Structures are given as C-alpha cells and as structure tokens.
From TrEMBL:
Residues 19-74 form the BACK domain. It comes from the Eukaryota. This is BACK domain-containing protein.
Length: 101
C-alpha cells in the first residue's frame, strides 16, 4: 500500500463503496502529509484530491508549506509557464490563477 499510495488514494475517491478506504487514507495523510505532497507524482493528482487534502483540519503541516505545494501543483498544470515567476506576463498570472481557482 505504501508503494502505490497515490493510486490507492485516488481510487478511493472513484466509488462511494470505498469510503472506508478513503477515510483510512485521509487519516494517514493527516498524520504524514509527505506521503502525498512530496511524492513524485504529486503534481498529477486530480484537483478534487488536492482540495480534500488542503481542507483537512487535522493536516499536520504549516499553511506556508501547504501553499508552496499548491503553487507547485498549479505550475505543473501548465508546464508552458515560465519557470521564474518574475518573468510572468499578465496572461501567465491569469493562467496560474485559473489553475488554482
């Protein structure tokens, strides 16, 4: 389960019959958020999963750390954005804004 945690977590949201598995994963992430946030495929998790992660009141991570990961996720949704935000155009900011909406 540890090796394929992201897959199991994503799968738990695909069917209402997996609610117990979903809750197990959420509890595990609350105690050890790095399981998702620092995983290699974090940037590919669906928006719904990201929202459920950041809305968890028991998440043991500072708001700054959460925001940093959310921004990384947002950048990954539009790889065409410049890597340095100081070079962003107004349109680039709008793209990122739409990703994070």
């Amino acid at each position: 389960m540890e090796l394929n945690f992201n897959l199991i977590y994503q799968t738990s949201f695909e069917n209402d019959s997996f609610l117990e598995l979903q809750q197990y994963c959420i509890d595990l992430i609350s105690k050890n958020p790095d399981k998702i946030f620092k995983s290699l495929n974090f940037s590919s998790i669906p928006e719904k999963l990201l929202i459920s992660l950041i809305q968890d009141a028991n998440l043991q991570m500072s708001e700054i750390q959460v925001w940093d990961h959310v921004l990384k996720w947002g950048f990954a949704q539009s790889p065409e954005l410049p890597s340095d935000p100081t070079n962003f155009s107004k349109e680039d900011f709008n793209v990122l804004k739409n990703n994070l909406k």
